[in-house]
Fold each of these.
Amino acid sequence: MHDNFFHKLKVYYEDTDSGGVVYYANYLKFLERARTEALFSIGFSNKKIQNDFNSLIIVKSCNIEYKAPAHLEDNLMIRTFIKSISKTSFFMNQFITRDKNDIAEAKVHLVFVNKDGKPVKIPEEIYIKFKPFFCDSIKI
């Protein structure tokens, strides 16, 4: 059984179009915030990873399926878990829900890279902290 990271957020006026519907690109921002909070919850930050490991985590690809619109002042929950991991990258699945109904689902491929953008091995310290959140296939 795997654990999930959870992140709550409220939709603000700045997130919506003139009709009060969340602009499609803003879902990517919501997902990024949830991933950042997931890092914080295990004792890391993007800045700490950069400073301590000379690495960055970049999005290599993101596939998002929009199932229903979010609206102004909706309270959303983003559930995140690690689908699989390799030596240099991992896949996260993220679900955005409103009142327990899925409104968007994303599959995100993230890669650890050095300052030159070259893939590097995921630091063991981070791998160990992420381990309880692994879901399916683990390829190390």
Amino acid sequence: MSKRDNLYLVGLMGAGKTTVGRLLARHYGCSFYDSDHEIESRTGVKIPVIFEIEGESGFRKREEAVIAELTALSGIVLATGGGAVLSAVNRENLRKNGVVIYLRGTPEHLHERTRHDRNRPLLQTENPLEKLRELYRQRDPFYREIADIVVDTGRQGVSGMTRVLFGKLDLLRSGLPMSDMAD
């Protein structure tokens, strides 16, 4: 299996990984997976329930198992959960088995996108924007560490973001070294 057969999307919650992932899968004729949706489908409960019963550590164990299984497949697009990169095992599986795309958004933009979403347990706090800032400070170095391509989500829409991404992926597939692709 070639590393270029799989595309993995990483980034904070609300960055657009699932939406962009579905578009990439359709464009390239790949199967699409969302690690959070896979966990929900296998457990029969929503992520907040898993957090409530098993805590974040229980959820992360489930996430690691699902990502190990999915990164062993070929010809897929995978949208990961925002915290998947906290696991060194996940980072290694993502880095060695596919092209990693970091959808980078500022905490302020991501707060706008997620502020009414009750399915994000980590944001059910007094100050969700401050929590996003904290998560960004903690996770951004991990996203950058494994990213082959970085795309700023900014205020651009999904179509603008995917156009940029298609261009970068086409260059990558034409043989441009991956080290030239990160911002």
Amino acid sequence: MSDIKKLLGKKIKLIRKERKLTQEQLAELVDIGTPNISYIENGKFAPSNETLQKIAKALDVSPSELYNFDEFKNVNDIKKELFDALDKDDKVLKVIYGVFKSLRFHVK
């Protein structure tokens, strides 16, 4: 799922549900129609900058937080990112190894 509109919509929906808001309630807070919230959450529409700011305010997050898609990364992307970081910096490798050693005895 690399389409930014879909990722943004998925993030908005995730946060809305965490805040225990319905689409109708969010729409009212943002002052747009409920179908528009649905279209945004389903990645059919990209919100305008103004609407995005209103959504962020209604959800009590910064607009930039709406673009943090880390929880949607798949395992292969996470592995690649981690291995790239380990290859670039020996200090990172040593820190991660220390964390690994301390966790492997606690995680079963």
